[in-house]
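pinned: reference chain
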Amino acid sequence: MKGTIIREVLEKDNSSLASMIRQVLLEIGVPKVGTAYADPELDFMYQAYSDQRSAYFVLEENGFVTGGAGISPLKGGKSSICELQKMYFLPSARGKSLGEKMIDHCLDYAKEQDFEICYIETLPYMKAAQKLYQKKGFEYIDHPMGSTGHTSCNVWLINKLQ
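pinned: its C-alpha cells
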C-alpha cells in the first residue's frame, strides 16, 4: 500500500498510539479492567518497549498511526517465551492484510531475539483476531502463561517459533 509502513515506535508516537489503542479497545467493547486498557505503559509505549528483546512496531499510513503490535519477554515466564502484545488497528487499516504483515514482522523480530515460543492472549469474542493468529501458526492452549495481569483475557494461544 502506498504510504504505508511498519516501523519501530518513536517517542513522538506515545500520545497518538495511546489514543488509537484506547479508541479500538472501546470500539470492540473490552473491559477496562484486566485488559490492555488498564496497562500503565499504554501512555509511554516508546519507553515501555526500550528494554532488551522488546520492540513495538507501529503501522503508519500516510503519516498517521493506524495500528501497532509489540514483542516482549513474557512477564513471569521463561526467557525463551515472548508475548505478542497490544496488536490493534483502526477500522481504516483493517481488511488490507496489514495484520498479517504486522504479525510476520513481529514473529521475525521474536526469532531474531532467539525466542522459542510466542504467547498471546485475547478475548473469546475477538474471532477475527483468533482466525488470523491461527493462520499465522498459533495454536490454542488451555491455560494462561506468565503474569500479564490481563485477567479478563481467557483465550490463550502459542506459536512454536521455528
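why pinned: The domain at 4-160 is CATH 3.40.630.30 (Aminopeptidase). The chain has one domain: 4-160.
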